[in-house]
Design brief:
It is a single chain. This protein is of the alpha+beta class and 330 residues long. The chain is built from nine helices and 18 strands. It has a seven-stranded mixed sheet with strand order 1-2-5-6-7-10-11. Strands 12-13-14-15-16-17-18 form a seven-stranded mixed sheet. Helix 6 packs across helix 7. It starts with a helix and ends in a 7-residue tail after the last strand. Bound molecules: zinc ion. The site of zinc ion (ZN) has 6 residues, from helix 5. Zinc ion (ZN) binds next to helix 5.
Length: 330
């Protein structure tokens, strides 16, 4: 036995207490290494944020979360063969057995107002590693109290889940902007006992209590100077999108008009499971992306790959997603 071996042996056998402490330490390190290699999609780092300027507006995109969401053909192209969906994915360097859906609320600081577009999952999403909006805002230098207006593009759970935190408004100084048709649909008691019942209950809990602070925006109405709403119905009954304009720069927040950067943009007519009125949603997709591709303006889609900003180029039956580069840095 060498001196060194002897030392190790003495240390290990020196006391029962040390042995008990040493074992969990080794297990903890092993567990840490395991977590590290699994690369959890919402791993414990600050949420991703991305800041850029649109004229005089500061835009901050915040990643509320992301999650693997199963077989792509069970959500997108549900009126197509699985082979057709797989072929398009493969041609675009994407796997055919799973896809990642991301969630990107947006903060727009106009200099007068701090406007939040959609609120992510909020507390109910945190058990799955989502609901990180407020944490991401903090990383970007904003507090919930800074928000003066919350705009709800529509009232699905990944957009209104974060309106309330423990039953209280998460953004205590904010007023709200939403579409009347969307509000009326989700708060209507006729939704009880239908597939929309879960959404109905969430709207009753998170949106209805704020009714006296909500401004219902008509098609073309202004949230503030330079930010206007536009009807884009179909994904949900009153789904709206928003155009930002400042100093001759533009960005269209397309919300959930298209929900996959390949499957929904290249094939806008393919049916999507989450589009409540499938033909109206397809018509809105073509209308909105014809507009942004013809006008060559940038768009930000809530479920596009983070930071969720890009351009749509007309291509074949649809559009090709071209991610933003340095266009807004010059
Ligand atoms: Zn959504």
């Amino acid at each position: 036995m060498t001196n060194s071996q002897s030392f190790k042996r003495r240390t290990l056998l020196g006391s029962v207490g040390l042995g008990l402490i040493a074992a969990p330490m080794i297990m903890t390190r092993a567990a840490f290494a395991q977590a590290d290699t699994s690369m959890d999609i919402n791993h414990a780092m600050p949420p991703e944020t991305h800041r850029f300027k649109v004229g005089g507006f500061e835009v901050v995109v915040i990643k509320d979360g992301a999650r693997p969401s199963g077989k792509p053909n069970e959500t997108f192209g549900i009126n197509q063969t699985p082979e057709a969906v797989a072929e398009l994915l493969t041609a675009n360097f994407l796997p055919t057995d799973n896809f990642v859906n991301g969630f990107s609320p947006v903060l727009v600081n106009t200099g007068k107002d701090v406007i939040l577009f959609d609120t992510g999952f909020g507390k109910p999403g945190r058990k799955d590693g989502n609901g990180r909006l407020i944490e991401g805002m903090a990383a970007a230098g904003y507090t919930p109290e800074d928000v003066t207006i919350v705009v709800l593009t529509h009232m699905h759970g990944d957009h209104i889940g974060g309106v309330m935190e423990d039953g209280k408004p998460a953004f205590p100084n904010a007023r709200y902007v939403a579409g009347q048709k969307e509000y009326d649909f989700w708060t209507d008691t006729a939704r009880a006992g239908t597939p929309a019942e879960g959404g109905h209950k969430l709207a009753l809990a998170n949106v209805k209590p704020l009714l006296d602070k909500i401004t219902f925006l008509p098609d073309g109405g202004d949230v503030v100077t330079g930010i206007s709403g536009m009807n884009a119905f179909g994904h949900s009954p009153g789904h709206m999108i928003y155009r930002l304009q400042s100093e001759n720069r533009q960005l269209v927040l397309t919300a959930d008009t298209a929900n996959h950067f390949v499957l929904s943009l290249q094939k806008p007519e393919w049916e999507v499971k989450f589009d409540m009125d499938k033909s109206a949603a397809a018509a809105s997709r073509k209308k909105v992306f014809d507009m942004v591709s013809t006008d060559r303006v940038a768009f930000l889609g809530y479920h596009m790959p983070f930071p969720s900003v890009g351009y749509a180029e007309k291509s074949g039956d649809g559009y090709r997603f071209v991610p933003k580069a340095y266009q807004f840095d010059l």
